Amino acid sequence: MKKNIIIITVNLFWLITFSQTSGFVKSDSIAYPIHRANIGKIAFMGQIVPIENFKETNFLESFEPKEKTDFNIRVFLGNSLTNYLHLLSPKLTAEELTKNGNYQFTFIVDDKKIYVENLNVGAGSSESKNQKTILRVPLISSTNEDSWGRFLWNRFFSNGGQEAFTSGNHILKIEVRPYLKLTVVISGDVIAEGQIKINVPEIKINEKMVRFQSIKTIKDWQVSTDKLDKSKIEELNRKIANQTYKNITSIVVIKDDKLLIEEYFNGAKRNTLHDPRSVGKSFASTILGIAIKEGYIKSETQTLKEFYDLKSFQNYSTSKDSITLKSLLTMSSNLEGSDMNSESIGNEENMYPTKNWVDFTLNLPIDKTKVVGKQWDYFTAGCIVIGDIIHKSVPNGLEKYADKNLFKPLGITNYKWEFTPQKVANTAGGIQLRSLDFAKFGQLYKNKGAWNGKQILSQEWIAKSLSHQMAISENEYYGYLFWNKTYKVNGVDYEVYYSSGNGGNKIFIFKDQPIVIVITSTAYNTAYGHKQVEQIMQEYLIPAITE
């Protein structure tokens, strides 16, 4: 009798397991023995092993996290995601389920829940959601494999994972659930889970790099004797040294027009040229403002039709005639272009492979859901058109004009432009300077456009640029290719205008304090790049220099 009960139990287990592969939509069959033996489990692996060759001996038991290595998970499911989502909302169609649902990942370190993410519904195709019962997700890739998994891992790291993985041994557990976002977010039971030992080696820190870096005298700046909390800066330096904050290359603080802090990291020095990516967009605004001040361009209210025969480009519409330079400066034109939407035909990633970036932009159709000047949408290609208009309007082209009218007056001689396919200086983000020279740029705005007694930029242009031209969110605004937000530190508001570039590159201009801050970084295309700079400002720099 006891033997019969065991047989019935086993048969019932297999019946339940295999019946999971049939359901609301047809999913992939459970064809591999390794899959059949590990349904509901997550296997960790290093280098990629094809599923047909994958064995339990390939499962990693421990891992040491590094950037230049491979760390993957293989998720063995009993059914496809759409079938699991169907259990959460049986009345929805398969299309509705895939459009509103995805996987929820939970990261647990040493039995403490660190990070939960509802994966963006756009990650993964409808076909894969309907069919796949095995997922391979790269978390760390030595080849920078294009996958949402890498960005998921980076977000986990920047939202508590970095702090949780102190030196020593840890247990990382990952749980996967289905979720649906309807009027509220609902999630299902765990459909796969797994754990692995994470070995974090102790990082040896050069204590000299932690100490507050003394400032050597320099011709262009007086050195400040103002008080600051050096212990706070050394605490920050330690976090940069032990890679809690990664890839920071420099921090410069100007207070009362004097050099208060000058710190370099990760091989950077005073004469290093930094590539701050979209920080260069703010320079496009500056050069345009100078060209308007000198009369080469009448006003930012001029329209594109005054500079181009718009009818000669594709997708002509009379709506294009009303697009102003101001709408490009404020990211509020009605061209069908959005860098925040990977599916947008005007996304910057679609522009870069083309032979003519200006033609790419002006060939774009009109987005009928947008009204010029009313809706903010980040649009890099518009900055290329601004640069082209400047280039055609000023004497000797944009590059020489900027050198004569901006860089030389500021005493900036060591810099480097990147160029468009038309050999025009790239105003979408292609200027490299020293950190101290980026500080000069910020201080120019703090000085209301004046430098060494000369008015380089009009005060009127400064006021327009550093203003709330467009609302982005409750605490964020956009001016003329400058961002704006307010930090609250110990109950005090600090409003800043700032230039911002990929990886966490920033030039902060404080509205009501005599302060300019430059932070450079090489954390390009990471989830933590911008976030760690927010923490540096909020927890270290502002408290250290204002209290």
Which terms summarize this structure?
547 residues, disordered N terminus, alpha+beta, 6-stranded mixed β-sheet, globular
Integer-rounded radius of gyration: 27 Å
Helix content: 25-40%
Ranges where pLDDT stays below 50 over 5 or more residues in a row are: 1-22
Structural class: alpha+beta
Overall shape: globular
- Provide the spatial order of strands within the biggest beta sheet: 11-10-21-20-19-18-17-16
β content, as a range?
A: 15-25%
Count every helix, treating DSSP H or I runs of 4 or more residues as helices. Answer: 17
Oligomer: single chain
- Tally of DSSP β-strands: 21
> How widely separated are the two ends?
79 Å
Major sheet summary line: 8 strands, antiparallel
Mean pLDDT, all residues: 93
Can you walk me through this structure?
This protein is an alpha+beta fold. 31% of the residues lie in helices and 23% in strands. It is built from 17 helices and 21 strands. The chain has helices at residues 2-19, 33-36, 81-88, 94-100, 126-131, 148-164, 207-210, 230-241, 280-293, 325-329, 348-351, 357-362, 380-393, 397-407, 435-446, 459-465, 528-546, and strands at residues 41-45, 62-63, 71-76, 101-109, 112-118, 134-140, 168-181, 185-187, 192-200, 248-255, 258-264, 415-417, 431-433, 450-451, 454-455, 470-473, 476-478, 483-489, 492-501, 505-510, 515-521. The strands form 5 sheets. The protein has an 8-stranded antiparallel beta sheet, sandwiched between helices. Strands 2, 4, 5, 7, 8 and 9 form a 6-stranded mixed beta sheet that branches. The protein has a 3-stranded antiparallel beta sheet with strand order 1-3-6. A hairpin with a 2-residue loop joins β18 (483-489) and β19 (492-501). α8 packs antiparallel against α17. It starts with a helix and ends with a helix. Residues 1-22 have low confidence and may be disordered.
